[in-house]
Design goal:
Layout lengths: L6 E2 L2 E2 L5 E6 L2 E6 L3 H4 E5 L4 E4 L4 E6 L5 E5 L2 E12 L8 E8 L10 E7 L8 E7 L10 E3 L10 E7 L3 E6 L2 E7 L14 E8 L19 E15 L6 H5 L2 H4 L7 H14 E4 L18 H10 L1 H5 L16 H5 L2
Antiparallel strand pairs: 1-2, 3-4, 5-8, 6-7, 7-18, 8-17, 9-14, 9-18, 10-11, 10-17, 11-12, 12-13, 13-19, 14-15, 15-16
GO biological process, one term: cell wall biogenesis
EC number: 2.4.1.207
GO cellular component, one term: apoplast
């Protein structure tokens, strides 16, 4: 878990610019960067506001615009993390994204690794979506969606992407929720080119909540997503002249390139049983045959089929437009 830090009044001051994380079962302390050390504003003018001497960033969506920031460097593999607190109340149509991409450089064959947080109507929980694109393979959506075991608008929670040459692992509060392994059958569809890290908030009314049924209602604006504990722990490279071999032999990255421990895997399996609501591998309306990297789990397939027999049982349904871009206690966490 992240270290508890000293408070002075209502303001939070970092005693040490380090955060404790658990990677493959072992605790590591990684450096936290201030905004000016690692990021630039992407868009949004004064809808991006820095706090705590640049150690925290507030991104706002209002009727005028959303907002976002991007890392100053591109990275080939690494550990990328942020503690995020999402907007509360009515958030239908709102999308908060924490993701990696190189679409601004490789427009026709870009890579992407996504955390997307999809808002909801009042009384309904935020949903979280992960997705992976490699080499421009946007025609094959690799989405998974989940509910969470806590309200992400109540407090800060840590969301992490661990990216190596052989796998991608998504973490929530140091618990792995998805492992995406590189396979020979994927060909070039695994992200393999340097990417920047992005964080954005924007209006996704056309698709984000019930396929666009519920849209952003600016009566509840401004919507503010708060980011802190920003970690960029990767191999910074030139996007054109880069060496994957050099990056993969970097000592700091080798320490992060281990597998999920048995204990972590038990927690991941439990999370997926309880909270996963969608996986592209079982979507028979989109894929008559699962994409080649999918490993079909019969128990998982049966559970999702009961959850949505049309999508996961092979029934017919008209599909709307798919967007391209795509109250926790410790006891609850331990039970995942």
């Amino acid at each position: 878990m992240m270290m508890k830090l000293s408070y002075l009044g209502s303001a939070l001051f970092l005693v040490l610019s380090l955060v404790s994380v658990f990677v493959s079962g072992s605790e590591k302390r990684l450096p936290i960067l201030s905004f000016d050390e690692g990021y630039n504003q992407l868009f949004g003018d004064d809808n991006l506001v820095l706090h705590r001497d640049g150690k925290a960033v507030h991104l706002t969506l209002n009727e005028r615009t959303g907002s976002g920031f991007v890392s100053q460097d591109l990275y080939l593999h690494g550990y990328f993390s942020a503690s995020i607190k999402l907007p509360a109340d009515y958030t239908a149509g709102v999308v908060v994204a924490f993701y990696m991409s190189n679409g601004d450089i490789f427009e026709k064959n870009h890579d992407e690794i996504d955390f997307e947080f999809l808002g909801n109507i009042r009384g309904k929980d935020w949903r979280i979506q992960t997705n992976v694109y490699g080499n421009g393979s946007t025609s094959v959506g690799r989405e998974e969606r989940y509910n969470l075991w806590f309200d992400p608008s109540d407090n800060f929670h840590q969301y992490t992407i661990l990216w190596t040459d052989s796998q991608i692992i998504f973490y929530v509060d140091n618990i792995p929720i998805r492992e995406f392994k590189r396979t020979a059958s994927m060909g070039g569809d695994f992200p393999a080119k340097p990417m920047s890290l992005y964080a954005t908030i924007w209006d996704g009314s056309d698709w984000a909540t019930n396929g666009g049924k519920y849209r952003v209602n600016y009566k509840y604006a401004p919507y503010v997503a708060e980011f802190s504990d920003l970690i960029l722990h990767g191999c910074a490279v030139d996007p054109i002249e880069f060496s994957s071999k050099k990056c993969d032999t970097t000592q700091s990255l080798e320490e992060l390139s281990t597998t999920i421990t048995p204990s972590q895997r038990m927690k991941m399996d439990s999370f997926r049983r309880k909270h996963m609501t969608y996986s592209y591998c079982y979507d028979q309306t989109r894929y008559k045959v699962p994409p080649p990297e999918c490993v079909v789990n019969p128990q998982e397939a049966e559970r999702l089929k009961k959850f949505d027999p049309v999508t996961f049982g092979g029934g017919r349904r008209h599909h709307g437009k798919r967007h391209h871009r795509t109250r926790a206690s410790r006891a609850e966490t331990d039970s995942i």
